[in-house]
Design a protein that fits this description.
The chain is an alpha+beta fold. Helix content is 50%, strand content 19%. Strand 1 and strand 2 form a beta hairpin.
C-alpha cells in the first residue's frame, strides 16, 4: 500500500517496551514508524535530515502499524521473515538487528541454523523452520539482488563465515565490527578465494586492530 515515505526525520522515540519509533514529517504530517536499531543509530547522527524510508504496513484489529527500513532489500527481507509460520514482526526485527542483511540472507539460503539461532528468542526449532520455509524462495531472491548489485565483494562459503563469526564473537568483537571486517576482506579478489577460516580470522583481527 505504501512503498516508501520521504520526509524529515524529526526524532526517534524509545517506547516503554523498548521499541524505536521514528517521527517522519512528510508534508507537515507526522508519521510514526517503528524502525530497527541500526537505522535509529544512523538517524541519531543527524536529526532533521531528509530520509527515504521503505515501509511495510501491518494491519491489526486494534490499530495499523507502520514499519520502516533504510533500504528496499531490508524491507523485503522483513516481509519474507513475516511469511514464516510463527514469526511475528518483533522477532523478524530482532533477526535483522543481530545480523547484517547480507549475512542474514546467507544463513537463510544455506540453511545455516547456527547463524539463524543467534538471535535472542530464536531456538533451534524456530531456526530450522525459518530455513526450511524460506530457503528456496530466498535463493532466487538472493540471485536477483546480487545480479543487480555493483559491489565486487565475494562472501566466503557459509561454513567459513560461520567459523569466523563464532570465533570473533568469542574474542569479544561486536557483530557490527565483524560484518565490516568480513565485508572489507571480501572485496579483495585474491583473499576472497581463501578457504582457510584461520586466515580469515587473522585477516579480520589485523583489520580491526
Amino acid at each position: 500500500m505504501i512503498n516508501y515515505l520521504r520526509g524529515q526525520a524529526i526524532e526517534v522515540i524509545k517506547t516503554p517496551n523498548n521499541r524505536l519509533i521514528l517521527i517522519l514529517d512528510v508534508n507537515q504530517i507526522g508519521y510514526e514508524i517503528q524502525i530497527p536499531s541500526r537505522l535509529a543509530l544512523d538517524i541519531g547522527k543527524d536529526n532533521n535530515d531528509s530520509r527515504q524510508i521503505f515501509t511495510h504496513l501491518l494491519l491489526r484489529e486494534d490499530q495499523p502499524l507502520l514499519y520502516g527500513f533504510g533500504t528496499a532489500p531490508e524491507r523485503d527481507l522483513f516481509r519474507q521473515l513475516l511469511s514464516v509460520n510463527g514469526v511475528g514482526a518483533q522477532l523478524a526485527l530482532a533477526k535483522m538487528i543481530t545480523i547484517d542483511t547480507k549475512y542474514q540472507r546467507l544463513g537463510l539460503v544455506t540453511g545455516n541454523t547456527k547463524i539463524l539461532s543467534k538471535t535472542p528468542g530464536v531456538g533451534l526449532k524456530t531456526a530450522e523452520r525459518i530455513a526450511l520455509e524460506l530457503k528456496t524462495k530466498l535463493a532466487a531472491w538472493r540471485q536477483l539482488k546480487e545480479a543487480t548489485t555493483t559491489t565486487t565483494a565475494i562472501l566466503p562459503a557459509a561454513e567459513i563465515l560461520e567459523d569466523v563469526q563464532m570465533t570473533l564473537l568469542a574474542l569479544g568483537y561486536s557483530q557490527e565490527e565483524i560484518d565490516r571486517a568480513i565485508a572489507v576482506l571480501s572485496q579483495d579478489a585474491l583473499f576472497s578465494k581463501n578457504t582457510q577460516p584461520e586466515d580469515w580470522i587473522k585477516g579480520a583481527i589485523n583489520w580491526l586492530g
